[in-house]
Amino acid sequence: MLSQEATVAKAEDRLVRLNAAIASGAAPNISVRDMALDAPPRARLADALALSRAAQFTLDDTQERTALLDSALARLQSIGNTRPYWGEFWSTRAFAQSMRLGPRATKVRESLNRSYRDAPYLSRAGAWRIAYGFAYWNDLNDLTQDRVLNEAVWLARSSPVMLDSVLTLARQSPAYRAYVVHWMAARQGDIDFRPLQRTAP
Q: I need a surface site. Which of 2, 37, 123, 124 has the fewest CB within 10 A?
């Protein structure tokens, strides 16, 4: 058990360091040699997300980008075979598929739908789900649209930074009017809610 937890910790640390490098403007540098396909599911998920994030910022080398995404999807497939009921797994799979297959591919929406079914709210993956959902709003079914709105309001209420980020995404989407309705309904009972002030879209 301790050995497995150590493997998970190393994988999550790789992901944290990669995200920090990307945030600083450095080119992503990652190797699959340290990523075992028989690692615990949480480690494979962190590795798959790291590979996907590296691919996201590897724009000039199509071959390398494809290899990174294929490695990510292989790890995700191995998770799905043993632990299929996991919203964060399905969200990460949708993220990787959107880059490998194209954002409007049917499989991307299927993975997104499944991620919401298994986990309606995700603190880490929620921002991507909302961004994708707002961007491809008209491609989503009614149930997934409703779940995107619920998660968007939930994240927007978590901090002023998230409020501004979600509002910016919503304003660029056909979902904007529906988002405002959800936001107003959710905030009506909050003591700090002021409809005419900056706190509300």
A: 2
